[in-house]
Amino acid sequence: MALTTRTFGPLSCQIYDQLPAETKPQIIAVVSHGFGAPGDDLVPLGPEILRQNAALADKVQFVFPAAPLSLIEMGIPGGRAWWMLDVAALNEAIATGKIRDQRGQTPDGLLEAGQQYRAMLDALLQETGVPLSQCVLAGFSQGSMVSTEVALQLPEPPAALAIWSGTLLCEERWGVLADQSARFPVQQSHGTQDPILPFDGAIWLKEMLEQRDYAVDFTEFVGPHTIPQPALDKFGSLLADLTSSL
């Protein structure tokens, strides 16, 4: 497993690839974990996708940034967060089945997390020489939200955005950013039985983007807060399509 640890800007990153020495990747996939997970939580997705898409092995590099905040004081050793959550309120919503409508909220720390992510991305692309147009932003849960926040305000569009079990935040802000951004393809997946970020929130996000002429490939699945195999299959196909067009 060709895994290395590097720091880009303010964030520590795990880098996985099977590229020959001194080979520049055609596509960089930046994959961000969710709240409470360790920084290397999604690293196994890299080898899994390459096993299923062998032709990508000498073309794609996966970068897995660790979120900036430690959760050790919350009793989660090794856990990281892009911004802090009100865990008590989340647990109450799960217990009562109350839908968490976050469309009007800009969570404390979201904008700062976006700035740190952007600094990491800028440093990564400066070193590799890969343009934004050959960079895919992807993430799970909170990681998908910070990826969306960044993707919508980049100076040029990324190759694509993948949102796994995300939701619509700060609707007015994201709507303005989406209006101003050049369009890029979006993959999105969400479980109909997700107790943490309800399915309705994913639909609201999908509709917000589609109303602004973003092409959203949406995967609905019967299941909880997770990344389903069909979404990973589509992600692998996306990477294959992007490399074949270069």
UniProtKB/TrEMBL annotation:
Alphabetically ordered keywords of this record: Hydrolase
Pfam family, one: Abhydrolase_2
All copies of domain Phospholipase/carboxylesterase/thioesterase, residue ranges: 24-232
Keyword GTP-binding: no
Keyword Ribonucleoprotein carried by entry: no
Recorded superkingdom: Bacteria
GO terms, molecular function: hydrolase activity
InterPro entries xref list: AB_hydrolase_fold (IPR029058), LYPA1-2/EST-like (IPR050565), PLipase/COase/thioEstase (IPR003140)
Record-stated family: Belongs to the AB hydrolase superfamily. AB hydrolase 2 family.
PANTHER family: LYSOPHOSPHOLIPASE-LIKE PROTEIN 1, LYSOPHOSPHOLIPASE-RELATED
Full protein name: Phospholipase
Organism: Gimesia benthica
